[in-house]
Amino acid sequence: MPKVKVDGVEIEVPQGATVLQACELAGKEIPRFCYHERLSIAGNCRMCLVEVKPGPPKPQASCALPAAENQEIFTTTPMVKHAREGIMEFLLINHPLDCPICDQGGECDLQDQSVAYGRGHSRYAENKRAVTEKYMGPIVKTIMTRCIQCTRCVRFAEEVAGVEEIGAIYRGENMQITSYLEEAVSSELSGNVVDLCPVGALTSKPYAFEARPWELRKTLTIDVMDAVGTNIRLDSRGRQVLRCVPRVNDEVNEEWATDKTRHAVDGLVRKRLDRPYVRRDGKLHPVTWDEAFAAIASVDHGGSVAAVAGDLVDCETMFAAKALLKELGSSLLEGRQTGMDYDTSSLAAVNFNTTIAGTEEADAILLVGSNLRWEAPLVNTRIRKAIKKGAKVFAIGPETELTYKVEWLGADLAVLGSLPERVTEAFGKAAKPMVIVGGAALKGAHGAALGLVEKLGLVKDGWNGFNVVHMAASRMGGLMLGYAQKAGISALYDAKLSFFLGADECDHARFTGFKVYVGHHGDRGAHHADVILPAASYAEKSGTYVNLEGRVQRGERAVFPPGDAREDWTIFRALSEKLGRTLAFDTIDELRAAMALDCPELATLGLKTFAWNPPALGGSAEGVLDGYPIKDFYLTNAICRASPTMQRCSAELVHGESFAEAAE
Q1: What's the rounded mean pLDDT across residues 326-343?
Q2: Cβ(13)–Cβ(19) below 8 Å
């Protein structure tokens, strides 16, 4: 490890570190615009200039200069100060004075660094250049006159998103950043360029002119749009969530978030259920809570009670419903609302055992019935990293664009029983082989996929390469709490009383008994309900979620539910009293204590490891996959379907509709 001196302080730096990283290890702040820890080095902006000895007597770009033994680095000399002032002056030559109307105001790198490292005045008296706005789709708003050509967005699109649709045209002063043919960027991760942009050139189109950062209350929570468990921050004002941005968690989402995670929040205030309803004479009528509870209490269920967990519910809700059903003498619980019936006797056999971060280490990967780009986009980005390290990827299923090179083995599941020799050869050489089973194959090929564990040597010391990709935020938590029947959801169809916990994706018409919908949006489940009990969304309650790798995480409440809506667990607690079966908890802390006794894995936060004891399954799988479970990435749940932004994304990016801009 090289030893260098930074402003007279000697430190040791890792082999291969840059001078900029060495300065940061020494606690020195180095300004930068183009450099980003998760992107390749470009060396465009020159803002990170420092003085280095031995070397030429001039400032050098620290982001692109390797740290070497016995280097002396100076970050505060007059030469460095003068150089940074000059670079800032050049960057501001054409930059418009848009701060009063710019959405980046208050969290802008250019603002902060011009104050800290700029001259305080400009000597430029010529006309500023102007650049026409570019169209990048319904997510990203462009004001390209502000662009400083740092190329962060270009590098992100190419390296992380894998969609090479943003680039630079022309040269010198005429250089412009634009999308390909000025059309919408098709990546489901495009919103991340807004966070990456160090100026106000790329901002959030749905959030435009909504609020200033200092007006917002910031709440740390967990995303529920997929099963990755993205760590997010909800920014709210009053009783409305205005913005969602990702938090850094290297083990889960790094610092990225999907467009659905970011922009479905405008659906939180639309099509909401804000009062109880009871169906009379075929029509739903608003009632009081007591009247709604009385209607449920009047049902003669005889212990035939079922609960179906939706995709977005938290563990507390599922446990409260489970506790109530236990008091009523029933154990008809199911969370796989779309009809899955795979074996759940071993949680390790339905878990993403390699872990999300561990995916980067795999050197041979087989995807079985998974469109990973839509099912778990932030796992897909990890596979791109593995490929850069030399991993080979094979896939069984209908061909689709996954943003990286894949060798497709056909859509017939019978391939699992007789993999081509080139596949077995690649896995035989692999030190860390990996199989990912997706939603399209999980129902009919779970056993056959488990049969690959020995055949391909997936489980070794310190490595488990068998993985299942879930698409619902509630799925792993539900399986841990016992929300699974051997026959799947069909075992619940004949229940005399059914509770739907935000379950909008199941076939409600097949349930023959009395239906109670406990949810937050007037979506599919509410349309079939006999009683509607308005509940809180993920932004309106504190809740525990388990992601697809078995990581227990907890989110906090950002805003309060609208109208008469209440937190889900409190609804079941109040209903239990009305039914004469009072549950043994009055606060959320008491509920969590009871839940920890029922499921010890949920007692503490963090990654849980499940003992590898898969069921004795195997054999061959039959059938040809004709598609993947997610047909429209942007409209997978009730919140998304209520979101104008997600509807626009679906129409434009999935269905190819065109939208005229104001100037047209």
Answers
A1: 90
A2: no
State residue 661's pLDDT score.
63
Q: How many residues does the chain have?
A: 664
Report CA dihedral (316, 318, 321, 327) to the nearest 10 degrees: -90
Is the pLDDT assigned to residue 329 strictly greater than 80?
yes
pLDDT of residue 657: 87
Helix (H, G, I), strand (E, B) or coil at 532: strand
Rounded CA gap, 458 and 619, in Å?
17
What is the enclosing helix (H) or strand (E) of 277? strand 277-280
**Residue 565, class by beta-carbon neighbours within 10 Å (0-12 exposed, 13-18 middle, 19+ buried)?**
buried
DSSP label at residue 208: T
Q: Collapse the DSSP code of 412 into the 3-class scheme (helix H, G, I; strand E, B; otherwise coil) and give the result.
A: strand
CB atoms within 10 A of CB 537: 26
All structural domains of the chain: 3-91 (3.10.20.740), 99-204 (3.30.70.20), 277-342+474-606 (3.40.50.740), 353-468 (3.40.228.10)
pLDDT of residue 663 exceeding 60: no
Phi-psi region of 642 (alpha: psi -120 to 50; beta: other; left: phi over 0): alpha
pLDDT value, residue 662: 52
Looking up tokens 């309060």, which residue turns up? 560
CB burial of 313-350 (b: ≥16 within 10 Å; e: otherwise) equals bbbbbbbbbbbbbebbebebbbbbbbebbbbbebbbbb
Is residue 87 over pLDDT 60? yes
pLDDT of residue 385 exceeding 70: yes
pLDDT in tens, 259-301: 999 999 999 999 999 999 999 998 999 999 999 999 999 998 8
What tokens were used for 451? 């049969």
C-alpha distances in Å from residue 61, one per residue of 16, 83, 115, 116: 16, 11, 21, 18
Torsion angle in degrees (nearest 10) through CA of 209, 210, 215, 219 = -130
Phi, psi of 49 (to 5 degrees): -60, 140
Residues 6+ apart with CB under 8 A from 461: none
Q: Which residues pair with 407 in a beta bridge?
A: 394
> For 424-440, how does the pLDDT look when each residue is reduced to its tens digit (9 = 90+)?
999 999 999 999 999 89
Longest distance between any two alpha carbons in the chain, whole Å: 89
Q: Burial level of 405, CB count in 10 A (0-12/13-18/19+)?
A: exposed
**Residue 241 and residue 268 in contact, taking contact as beta carbons nearer than 8 Å:** yes
Q: How confident is the model at residue 664 (pLDDT cuts 50, 70, 90)?
A: very low
Q: How far apart are CA 517 and CA 529, in angstroms?
A: 6
**Contact, 372 vs 380, CB < 8 A?**
yes
In the prediction, which pLDDT does 465 show? 92
